[in-house]
Amino acid sequence: MNGDSAEQPIRIEPEEPCPPPIALLVGFQGAALVLAPTVLNVAIAVRSSGLDDSYLTWSVFSAMVICGIITALQASHLRRFGAGHVVLAWPAAMFIAIMVATVSAAGLATFASLMIVCSLMQVALAWWLPALRRIVTPTVSGTVTMLIAVSVLPIAFDAVDDLPTDAPTSAGPVIAGATLLVSVIVALRASGRWRLVAPFSSILAGCAVAAAFGVLDGDQISSAGWFGIPDVPSLSVDLTPSKEFWVLLPSFAVLTLVLGLKTISDGVVIQQGSRRQPRAIEFRQIQGMVSVNGVGMLLAGLTGTLPTMANSSYSLSLINLTGVAARRVGAGVAIVSVTLALFSKFTAVLLTIPGPVLGAYLMLAMGMLFVSGCQTVLRDGLDSRRMLVVALASALGLGLHGHPLLRDLFGDDYGELLGSGVTIGAIAAIAMTLLVEAMSTRRSRLEITLDSASIPKIDDFLARLASRLGWNEVSTLRLRSAGEETLASLLAQEDDAEGLERPRLNITARPQATMVELEFVATTRQENIEDQMAFLAQEVAVPSADDLSLRLLRFHASTVRHQKYHGVDIVTVQVEGSGSAS
What we know:
- The chain is an alpha+beta fold.
- The chain folds into 2 domains: 20-223 and 240-437, no CATH class; 444-576, Heat Shock Protein 90 (2-Layer Sandwich).
- The protein is built from 23 helices and 7 strands.
- The model is unreliable at 1-6 and 535-548 (pLDDT under 50).
């Protein structure tokens, strides 16, 4: 099942049957991939929060169980919950800083309450995804992701000094440096599956150096049992929210939003990597993936640990190395994760990892997260308007993080809680995006019924738009034809739905230099237009009446994108044009 190549063709797609032994074997590999980051992220958050070892043991156990459950739920795709793909989950490192701040300032009960509230926000985000797509853009999410990485880095450097008081002064930097060095060497020199063992190699190297300094404590291993559930600490939820709850809620809401947006990006990547042939992105499954994030946040709040997030790089690594993308693998990961969590001795071994090793791992992880944020910003291009959004949000987020100015304005207590650079930067980025959207080229709108009788209205709407833009006759005809064929494509199966009220169709035209973007928003029952056009591109047969509109649309439009959400379809068509002929 595992070849020597770094990447194998997909042997089993998500919906195809997979023998249980193969699902369990691949599931074991998936659980092993996320084991190290699961333990390390939780250990950093709990230790930095000043909580004791018994709580750390419980928190790691809970995180391993929850990650397994969420991976299984993502693979199941039950109604509006789940991605229907192999989505490996692990604790979200982006929540480390805010967990430390919340537990230190307001206690675990407030943290649990905020997590439960944000779990509802995550589900709401999944349902409202179509409405938020133009507000919370890749520019916004990428900028906030970079700010998150910068805000967590101080915790990583503090962990380097997390050693016994009698340890040599040079022990922390040397241990962290050795961990980073081995991790970089393995990542650069290894290939294929060996790249996936880089975290384990660096951890072992760091622990070996720590043992040489005499700062590796093995008492926890000897005192731990072999099998069982750790003692449950005192867990509670604050049913009467305090002032700290309301002050911290915006920060949690921002991180929840960013987590949802990163999940969308990860879901797109996982869908693309799980198929033999390219398909259009199924945004209904993306919505289900975000909804399961809400379930993970709820479970994390109830158990007092970090929330889960999807990891597309590890998920794709598992799929590429094995060639298996079957949903059953999610159940295999869950079985292995829960089984490993119940082995208390095994968990105790992982919890003896010294602070400098954890800090080095977190430095590298946050560096990668920062680069991921940069890639997200650059995904749609960085024009002057997007550059302004990134520049202002980054400047405010970095400059005002913990600045005395906020304490002068809101007082010491509120100023310290409100001084999160992530929250400030996110608010600035969203506000700037709204301002740019409002000040962009004037948009034209048309609301009609999704019916063939609406063709004259669309034709008149687009003809007047082309006239206002000064387009020549050829470009005007292309624009009008694209609108007509898009409507015809959307109507392909609506005509068969007798006795049902016709849905409304909203058309928004956004002129952009020599191009017009037409956005059709409606409720339909047909298949994805992108997939249909891709299928037609591979066919050589004489076109039939059923696919004629799709072929004409492909001819007139430069790009066609179809996003199918629960309850709404959004078709975006771009048409190139030019001015009047001289």
